[in-house]
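Q: I'm writing a short explainer about Nitroreductase for a general audience and would like to include a description of its predicted shape. Could you first generate the structure from this sequence?
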Amino acid sequence: MKMNRLSKPPVSSEVLSQTVDWAIASRRSIRAFLPTPVPREEIESILDIARFCATGVNMQPWRVHVVTGEAKTRLSCAIAEIDNNPSLSNNLEDAYEYYPREWTSPYVDRRRKVGWELYGLLGIAKGDKQRMHAQHGRNYHFFDAPVGLIFTIDRVLKEGSLLDYGMFLQAVMVAARGRKLHTCPQAAFLKYHHVISEALAIPSDQMLVCGMSLGYADETSIENTLVTDREPVSAFTTFHHNNKETTP
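A: Of course. Here's the predicted structure. Afterward I'll give you a sentence or two in plain language.
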């Protein structure tokens, strides 16, 4: 169904706010998916809604490559072949610097916490590099999701367009939740941008932004019980009123 952007809400205000809030809050990074197919029409529907996200002067900087079936398998195998060979993968560089060069608190603390929580659920001990590598390598198989999404952007665009892109990615993930689907946004693909570009015939003027898994969550998988902590509003918000600063 095509959405009229000026239409009135299809449900009451209370139901509307609860539904939108649920879709945002229930979005999590899922790392184990069922093989249940996602119809192309459903994927198109998600992207059709996501395109209405905010974008500076209506630039709409996103480009999306959807990989399923044999195309997804070929891409995953091409990346895994290199990822499993340190002599080929160790010197590869990300498409751009997603993470800081030097980690500082509180960011490094949050990163470590979610990492050890995930490994703890999976029974991977600290220092078990083989199992850590194997778990990380599941990224490149889209955690067995039936749909992989690869996002690119025109290299001529600047940081502001990446802000727009973030809103587009969020819209994709929230729209997926509205259809009882789950996602996992993945910066892990950045290291293999050359492999991805070659496999999908992505022109050189396009830069890889990230990948994403899309499908139905395997609710029986222990890793999908991971729920990350988020800081309360009071920790990151300052209200300015009457020349005074207050926190919630």
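A: For your explainer, you could say: Residues 28-100+140-221 form a domain with the NADH Oxidase fold (CATH 3.40.109.10).
Q: Perfect, that's easy to follow.
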